[in-house]
Amino acid sequence: MTPLLEVENLRVSFPTPRGPVEVVRGISFTLGRERLGIVGESGSGKSMTGRAILRLVRPPGRVAADRLSFDGLDLRSQSEGEMRRLRGARISMIMQDPKYSLNPVMTVGEQIAEAVRAHARMSRRALRQRVRDMLEAVRIEAPDRVAKLYPHEVSGGMGQRIMIAMMLIPEPDLLIADEPTSALDVSVRAQVLDLIDDLIKRRGMGLILISHDLDLVARYCDRILVMKEGEIVESCPAQNLGAATHPYTRALLAAAPRLDETRAELPVLDRSAA
Amino acid sequence: MSALMLQNLDVAYGETVVTHGITLDIAEGESFALVGESGSGKSTVLKAIAGLAPEWTGAISAFGVPRGHGVDRGFARQCQMVFQDPYGSLHPRKTVDATLAEPLRIQRIGDEAARIEAVMAAVGLAPRLRFRFPHQLSGGQRQRVAIARALMLAPKILLLDEPTSALDVSVQAEILNLLKRLRREQNLTFLLVTHNLAVVSFLCDRLAVMRGGRIVEVASVAQLKHGTMVDPYSRELARLSAHALPAPA
Prior knowledge:
The structure holds 2 protein chains of 2 kinds.
Chain A: E1 5-14, E2 21-31, E3 35-39, H1 46-53, E4 62-64, E5 67-70, E6 73-74, H2 80-86, E7 91-94, H3 98-101, H4 108-117, H5 124-137, H6 143-147, H7 156-168, E8 174-178, H8 186-203, E9 206-211, H9 214-220, E10 223-228, E11 231-237, H10 247-255
Parallel strand pairs in A: 3-9, 3-10, 7-8, 8-9
Antiparallel strand pairs in A: 1-2, 1-4, 1-5, 5-6, 10-11
Chain B: E1 2-13, E2 16-17, E3 22-27, E4 31-35, H1 42-50, E5 56-62, E6 65-66, H2 73-78, E7 79-82, H3 86-89, H4 96-106, H5 112-122, H6 139-151, E8 157-161, H7 169-186, E9 189-194, H8 197-203, E10 206-211, E11 214-220, H9 221-226, H10 232-240
Parallel strand pairs in B: 4-9, 4-10, 7-8, 8-9
Antiparallel strand pairs in B: 1-2, 1-3, 1-5, 5-6, 10-11
């Protein structure tokens, strides 16, 4: 079986007065219908990797790859119109903060319906029913009431569930979730991730979960890539993350305080030895 | 002696009363945490103490001296605040030097240059950064500037509103270590607001769990570490914060 996504030697660069700066430096990975976690700190290139797959890196940013194929399609040679048909319908992306990603002047129901209408034609009645079913699938009680609300009238957790509904309603094959819960409280965080997890499994989709939180990706992914300065420094099954060998991964694991903390001082990264 | 005392504090934003009957007694040199979810009122308590939410009833006092509702210069010398997001809390068109000089000018304290140099050294900022603008600094450096600004008046109490939640985990470790060292060196009292219980475990002695504007439990950090908090809501928060990964060797 061909993998869902194949990435070979992916590079993203931005021009600066002192020449181009590469933020993603030749990374390669493949993804099946599985859950892949990409972790790293700010500036590691993890979000740019997600955007490059959807061809959402805006000029003057430049993307180059030896291979970038999704389900046999070469993403590099797709026209902008073809990409637009692909985005949402086959690959979709959940962004970090529902506050900034939802349209403030459109009701929740209209926005979710728009995600379907962009790719398929159906009667208004069938559409309304589908939106309703999707809102129920993301465990929103009283879906008819919520569909009529505007984004400012819902909480952060509910906003993120609405985003998930919008991204999953066209039934994509691959979901890219870029820090989907970092704007949420810890109690809501688990609910939202369990929900994504459940939907992914039930629909047999592929997931790329991008996060800075090692603990979180270890819990919700099958396989993990650790990125640093645009490169993949470690790749391992999620259950082995605790036994990671690369010094950078070890340092990240050690730097996080723990609930049962006993250390007087936290170890910090030695930035001089980069 | 208690450093910070809150008695029956109700804070309101217009018609809406956000916190209800908050009573706390924090000892000198203690590090105390307020934890809870968004909307629980934890940041509002800090804002009322700092004078940013002036509509409150009850009493706030530092070292036995009550705070007024308006601008209170004497109180500001005792008690300073560090905000969550160093990208938002520093004036983008002021250099580090200008940011650090401002509290001194407001309080008419002289000897600017020497004080700025000393505080920058204390928070681990290299002297060459003194005339930089915030956009020329990293996130960790910016948070160090924000902490330095709060320390300029040599306060006894620091109010810390999610001081590391906007930072990467490796930078968070540096800032947490810095706060711990400053507290030890300067005998500071901390009132920390956070939703990250692991940070509380590292930095604090006691914590209060807030929900819906009320304190549901005051516990020691030992109770947090050993999972022996009493209130079901506190226990649930602790459970959700537990780790999936084993402790690093």
